[in-house]
Queue: 2 jobs
Job 1
Amino acid sequence: MKNKIVAGNWKMNKNFSEAEELLVSIAESLDDMRLETEIVVCTPSVYLEMAADISEESNFYVGAQNVSYAPKGAYTGEISAEMLKSAGADFCIVGHSERRNYFHETDEELAKKVDLLLENDIVPIFCCGEKLEERQSGNYFQVIDNQIKNALFHLDKEHFDGIILAYEPVWAIGTGLTATPEQAQEVHAHIRRIIEEKYGTEVAYNTYILYGGSCNARNALDLFSCQDVDGGLIGGASLVAEDFIAIVNAAETASKND
Ligand code: 13P
């Protein structure tokens, strides 16, 4: 049985006291649960230290949502991998479609971010996924292959083994339109296949591939029950403690049914 991972991506939501309240209520709910599932909460960077403090008394990990492609220096407004680590982040989302689309992040920059995260002992959660027109044109495997190969396939086997992938079809993010379990499974199996071709069966099996895109308490169990779906990267539903915990429970059930 492979345990699941459920990661929350808060995006740019919550002020300081709201963030504290949500972290505390997640921690309190988790206190009563004996879990196999690993939980990661990716907060805005300004809340990382607080999240790390609260997580010490609980059983979730803390993640960031972005990192600079440069290690340090004159990059006003940027936050380095070393800073994230020193503030308590053990995970970091990279290449989210919102960053690719609104901030024009390139595969080349994403490859540098991944390298810096690994150097600083932070697990990258690397996002890939096609836009609606790419799905409709039937071109989506090619889009996803390029995203993964261009930003990750320079890594050697040992380093790739530390990466989490998240398949997030852009048309499903924040739209309420979820990929069906069949659609998710098809892409996840394809991703695992290209990892296997490059790094072999063991690495392919060990690599976590999460699904993200309007995943919620109602659809999580069906999605997580797919053979190649190893958990979820949750946006909107991670902003409400009960919803997030219900998704964690779905992950527990799915891995027990495996
Ligand atoms: P939603 O769950 O709000 O669709 O967001 C998914 C996402 O982008 C997680 O990174």
Job 2
Amino acid sequence: MNSIATEDRAKERAEELRRLLHYHNRRYFVLDDPEISDAEYDRLMQELIELEKKFPGLATPDSPTNRVGSAPLDKFDTISHQVPMLSLDKGFDESDILAFDQRVRRVLKTDEPVYYTVEPKVDGVAVALVYQKGLLVSGATRGDGYTGELITSNIKTIGTVPLVLQQRDGDGIQTPEFLEVRGEVYMNIHDFRVLNQMRMGQGLPLFANPRNASAGSLRQLDSSITAQRPLKMFVYGAGRVDTLNVNSHARAIEILKMLGFPTNPHIDAKIPVEGVIDYFQRIDEMRSSLDYEIDGIVIKVDRYDYHELLGNTSRSPRWAVAVKFKAVQEQTQVNDIIVQVGRTGAITPVAVLEPVSIGGVTVSRATLHNEDELRKKDIRIKDRVLVQRAGDVIPEVVKVISSSRDGTQKVFEMPEQCPACGQRVVRFKDEAATRCINAACPAQLKGNILHFASKGALDIDGLGKKLVDQLVEKKQVKSIADIFRLDVKTLENLERMGRKSAENLVDAIHNSKKIPFSKFLYGLGIRHVGVHAAKLLARHFENIDALAAARKEDIERIEQIGPIMAEAVRAFFDTPENIKTIAEIKQQGLVTIPEKTEKEGSGGLDGISFVLTGTLASMTRKEAAEKIEAAGGNVTGSVSGNTGYVVAGTSPGGKMEQARKKGIPIIDENQFLQLLKDATNGREVP
Ligand code: IVH
């Protein structure tokens, strides 16, 4: 083939790739609703980068290879980044790490080893936070790299983000006049699951993964919604590094940590390229044990003078590279759709998949949640689908690859009978779930017992699925209260049980009889009441009797508890069998420990402990204490590990020295007033 024809073909393909990448950029960055996996996106981008490299005449100024994101949504004010927020070049395996090292040494013209600082690449949302005189003044998303969305009040709701920087004069580290830090806002996998559980209960659409949940939460116009989302942040660098007055990235991270920023605990500093390869393998192996999602590692040349020599391309710095792990989303085929009966009687459709390796784990089933989700995503038997696995989250089908339909696909209908007990199933008008409402359905009882014994509830070690199946089938357990009646004799005669394990289990059951109220409450398996909601309820009601006696309105008044949950709680206690079961459980000796209560109507200083020292100009110490308490905080007389801030007025006493030694942030009167203002969203505090 002659070279003109080849170039023509390349041009066509480049145009197609650009169109696709623009489209997927928008889905990912603006709509928080990606259609293809990160791995597929990377493949498209890599193909375009290579085409443009091979035929430089093809590159266009608006090519996605020059951009790092997508234009911001217009619902927020925008802010231009003083230093563009670039993207990272990507590699995919060990050979790319070696190639990066060679490139770096070639540009630096050195045969000496170059040292790198390496970090997990957390899969969240990039943000930039600006601090002036130690106070947080703005927070923004990356946007298109040059202009981001201003989301300051949302950023301020993130507990791990310092509103005021720690003063470190004692260590010779000065709080910079101006500091812009960059990092990743993310959500723990566990918190993400609880959030989705709550959303499912409230009939709200579910987030596809923790990253989408973080992005969606940060993009709320009402920051009180963001405040309810369990967001966290890791800081990984500064926008203008000169403001930190250091000459290496590792040192910058150390200083950021001392100033009070959350930094990732798995950063390795100043290691040669061989060490980087070990690190890549090590982090990949520990990936599934982390409680947050990472999609690779980031390798950064440690010395800042080298950063200057290496410089940037329009898209990314030449001193850093991201090396990605194998994808956590992959395509496969739906071989069949079956249903499972859960502990609430909910009948969940499940996709039986052509086994596919996702991030090193073989996945052969994925939840389809419920009939509506199934219809919305229009998943049919024999469809090709995109499946994802996030940490220990149950794999799920993200979407159908509709272009792969060939007419052989079959629509799935929900069954009319419960597969566990054969009774007719129902679907209530206002509910997404199809249910088996037979209270005696063995599938539900088994599920209830497993839930009651699970980690978040009574945490009875040894009461697993196989055992529960036998206990229910042999009718030795007919309700959760019966668990407490089990004795060694009954248990040791069951399959796979010996005397010792029977004794251990009886001990474990006995030891579970004194537990925090919230765990018991969670264990009862009341609809919509997950771990988080159980804690909220337990903080307001001292014990099960108080909750059982509460009116729906009393329950609904609790912050974050909506009418649907309040209704479900009421319905649970209005069911005579449940009251009977609870009475039996109590009779068997179960006692609950009341949860710590929280003041109602508190503000943004919830649970933060203050120590006041010295004289304040604008108010007395007593007035300051009242304002702190009104915003949900508390004031103590001495500095301890639990102290959040020390407020230092003029002529402060020894408390300031104690705080400095313990590394507790010390704030002056202006910073204190600012904090109060932020905590109350500008509301006047009495
Ligand atoms: S450094 C100019 N370090 O990865 C380089 N980025 O394409 C700035 N990310 O969304 C990025 N963990 O927010 C860096 N330890 C880390 C990171 C990290 C996650 C994200 C970053 C951006 C993407 C870069």
